[in-house]
């Protein structure tokens, strides 16, 4: 067996250290991937009921907004009819000589 020089030993150690470093990085990547999937799954499980609640709230708000819009349109139509009726009543009162009260 021939003796190993310090430079040769350094090369051998560097090669082994590089291989060890690559192996550690691969294992860390695998572990990190598993942890990420686990955490994502847990968040999905925990957030699912909250997402359902938020979806329900949006549906209720959408219903209420549509209802309010419909009521607003109905009020506009009713006020237009009231204005026309008021005009007709005043025309009738004027043509018949009827005096309308201010109340």
What does this 3D model show about the protein?
The model has no long low-confidence stretch (mean pLDDT 92). With 103 residues, this protein is mostly helical. It has one helix and no strands.
Secondary-structure map:
Elements lengths: L5 H91 L7
Unreliable segments (pLDDT under 50, ≥5 consecutive)?
none
- Count of alpha and pi helical runs: 1
**Main sheet attributes: strand count, strand direction, barrel closure:** none
Helix vs. strand class: mainly alpha
Q: Given the C-alpha coordinates, what overall shape results?
A: rod-shaped
Fraction in beta strands: under 5%
Oligomer: single chain
Q: Could you tell me the mean pLDDT?
A: 92
Distance between the termini: 123 Å
Q: Which short descriptors sum up this protein?
A:
0% strand, 103 residues, mainly alpha
Write a short abstract of this structure:
With 103 residues, the chain is mainly alpha-helical. Helix content is 88%, strand content 0%.
């Amino acid at each position: 067996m021939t003796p190993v020089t310090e430079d040769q030993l350094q090369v051998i150690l560097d090669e082994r250290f590089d291989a060890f470093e690559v192996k550690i990085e691969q294992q860390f990547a695998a572990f990190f991937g598993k942890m990420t999937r686990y955490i994502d799954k847990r968040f999905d499980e925990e957030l699912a009921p909250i997402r359902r609640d938020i979806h329900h709230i949006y549906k209720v708000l959408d219903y209420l907004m549509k209802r309010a819009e419909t009521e607003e349109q109905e009020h506009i139509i009713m006020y237009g009819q009231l204005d026309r009726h008021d005009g007709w009543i005043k025309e009738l009162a004027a043509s018949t000589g009827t005096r309308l009260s201010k109340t």
